[in-house]
Amino acid sequence: MKRLWGFRPLCAALLLTVGLGVADAASVKLQPQGEALTRAVQAALGAISTKELPVTLDSGSGTVLVLGGAGSSAAPFNPDVAARVVTVAGTRRIEFNPAGPLPLEQAVRQELARELGFKDWTAEAARTRLSGADLNGDGQIDLKDLAILMENYGKAASVGDLNQDRKVDDADLRIFSSQYKPVRTPEPAPVEQKPAETPTTPETPAAPGTDTPPASTPAEPAPGDSAPGGGETPPSTPAQPTEPTPKQP
After folding, report:
1. Sign of the C-alpha dihedral, residues 153, 130, 27, 16?
2. Which domain covers residue 77, as residue numbers?
């Protein structure tokens, strides 16, 4: 790890010095049989081809692609399988199910991704896998790969010789710099600060046995009700009318 980190200042300087490299090309060795499969393979390669790294078909050798089984005596396909890989007379073949669950173009992309070791069928995956710049084969083109290239710089080595001219030199650095893309770690989203809430003081409950019931005014008993201490309440005496006093003559 110390050795790798020691390369960091040198790596940055080299990438700035050599600038962007020229566009390279990658060819995929496959032998599609029949017009339908050939069109499907060419369409699949066109989907991952870019100006920086064109991907072309080399049909002179490689895995054979066929639609259906190998001959009339071939085993029937599992209806849930889009394709299968077999070896016939020492030749590797990918046989596509004519009545499979996927359309032919989708089945071709799925099987070619497995065949070529792509994580997914994208231009980025093709760039990483086919450019040759992923020298340690970890699926990324980063400073670890540049460290490997610099170990072989100026040597007649195969590792780091990206243009296949039997030496590792500035031309390979230019190719590497065109493929190098540092992985950026996304910044964490800012945490929204909420205003602190003022805690409310709970009321202190009264101690058990100290509650005093509210005083109530006793109601005046109605006539005929029992008076306190027993017995009936005597009826009240009506007021006597006052006669007018006669005037003296």
Report:
1. negative
2. 23-121
**Contact assessment for residue 57 and residue 161, using Cβ atoms and an 8 Å cutoff:** no
- Residues 83 and 167 both lie in one domain: no
Whether 32 contacts 38, CB under 8 Å: yes
Q: Could you read off the pLDDT of 99-143 as tens digits, one per residue? A: 999 999 999 999 999 998 888 899 888 877 777 888 887 778 888
Q: What is the pTM of this model?
A: 0.54
CB atoms within 10 A of CB 111: 21
Q: Tell me whether residue 52 is in a domain.
A: yes
Asked whether residue 89 falls in the same domain as residue 116, the answer is yes
Of 68, 89, 121, which marks where a domain is finished? Answer: 121
| Amino acid making up residue 186 | P
SS3 call for 15: helix
Domain count, the chain: 2
**Structure confidence at residue 8 as a pLDDT band (50, 70, 90):** very low
